[in-house]
Recover the amino acids of this structure.
């Protein structure tokens, strides 16, 4: 497996490509990500089959429609349906001048569900609190987790946006992320990677 990280869009949102045997799964779709990621992967003759959304906030789904137009299958959590179907509802807290297209979600995911893509068993864990539909994708065989905006290196996601709740976010982190093996690498929606053990011991906002 090869993992590529792309820091994209107007506020530095992370997207990731999980590559296996000339095909890729993409996690999140910041602005301009389709053009950039497809161009990068095509150089190595790698195609994109699936797009996993950690949540429906504008900076993570801004280019989702472009992936759908290219035939990519999408996945997200139903609690963020309104954000995918009517993204401009977020205009009060997104950067001005953006005109976002609705994103079709082909597969709605739930807590505890497992999906098999490119030979990887991917566990879905619901980690709300930043927004209602934030989910984590955990690949045990690779010891990696993509957590969206629930947890950052030394920080946690905002909980002052519509649908956010600090108490729920703290519980999500403790019950869904901190229960992973300590060596699990954590890839957040913004900033550098970290790991579960480090955040359990040093995160100033939520300790184990």
């Amino acid at each position: 497996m090869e993992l590529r990280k792309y820091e994209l869009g107007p506020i530095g949102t992370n997207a990731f490509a999980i590559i296996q045997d000339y095909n890729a799964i993409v996690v999140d779709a910041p602005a301009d990500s389709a053009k950039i990621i497809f161009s990068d992967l095509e150089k190595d003759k790698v195609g994109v089959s699936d797009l996993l959304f950690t949540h429906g906030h504008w900076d993570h789904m801004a280019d989702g429609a472009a992936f759908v137009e290219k035939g990519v299958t999408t996945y997200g959590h139903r609690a963020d349906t309104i954000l995918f179907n009517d993204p401009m509802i977020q205009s009060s807290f997104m950067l001005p001048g953006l005109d976002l297209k609705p994103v079709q979600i082909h597969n709605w995911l739930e807590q505890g569900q497992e999906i098999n893509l490119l030979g990887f068993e991917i566990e879905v864990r619901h980690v709300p609190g930043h927004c209602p539909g934030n989910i984590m994708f955990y690949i045990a065989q690779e010891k990696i987790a993509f957590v969206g905006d629930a947890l950052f290196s030394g920080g946690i996601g905002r909980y002052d946006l519509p649908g956010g709740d600090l108490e729920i976010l703290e519980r999500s982190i403790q019950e869904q992320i901190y229960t992973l093996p300590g060596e699990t690498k954590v890839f957040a929606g913004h900033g550098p990677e970290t790991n579960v053990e480090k955040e359990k011991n040093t995160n100033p906002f939520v300790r184990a």
The CA atoms of residues 90 and 96 lie 11 Å apart. The longest strand covers residues 13-20.
